[in-house]
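Support request from a user on the community tier.

User writes: "When I paste my structure tokens into the form, the page sometimes reloads and wipes my input. The last time it worked, I copied everything first. Here is what I submitted, just in case something in the input itself triggers the reload:"
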């Protein structure tokens, strides 16, 4: 195993889910997070018929938010000091993508 990706349907009534990913350092920068994230979003919208998928990351985790931007997710907010990290309170970016944005992106149409 080189890593894992998690999708959690947190609110079935409103068809929303959050997801996360982590890979072993030896496999970073080879496109695996974008590949796995694409598969997760395809499942979320194409199989589970979700409406909105979101994720958060430490603002300092450039690799993580670049993955989300490559997946077509939009930065919606920056939460101040919302999580306790090893070095103290951290700020977090919130990213999300809607079903219609995913459909437009995967059919080759611009959505912005
Ligand atoms: C964040 C993480 C999942 C990225 O995984 P990855 O497989 O290396 O990502 P990809 O190879 O798919 O890269 C996607 C894009 O992000 C960029 N990127 C990845 N890591 C980066 C870094 N440390 N700094 C800057 N850019 C980075 C890549 O260059 C690529 O962009 P490009 O195609 O324009 O070059 C991985 O570093 C990791 O597992 N980190 C530890 C756990 C973690 O932080 N999980 C996320 C918690 S929110």
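"...and here is what came back when it finally went through:"
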């Amino acid at each position: 195993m080189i890593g894992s990706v998690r999708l959690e349907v947190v609110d079935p009534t409103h068809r929303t889910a959050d997801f996360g990913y982590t890979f072993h350092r030896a496999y970073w920068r080879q496109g695996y997070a974008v590949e796995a994230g694409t598969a997760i979003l395809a499942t979320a919208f194409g199989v589970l018929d979700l409406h909105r998928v979101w994720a958060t990351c430490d603002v300092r985790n450039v690799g993580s938010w670049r993955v989300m931007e490559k997946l077509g997710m939009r930065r919606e907010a920056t939460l101040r000091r919302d999580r306790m990290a090893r070095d103290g309170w951290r700020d977090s970016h919130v990213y999300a993508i809607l079903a219609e944005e995913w459909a437009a992106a995967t059919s080759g149409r611009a959505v912005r």
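Agent notes: The reload is a front-end session timeout and is unrelated to the input. The helical segments are 32-46, 62-70, 99-106. The radius of gyration is 14 Å. Escalated to web team.
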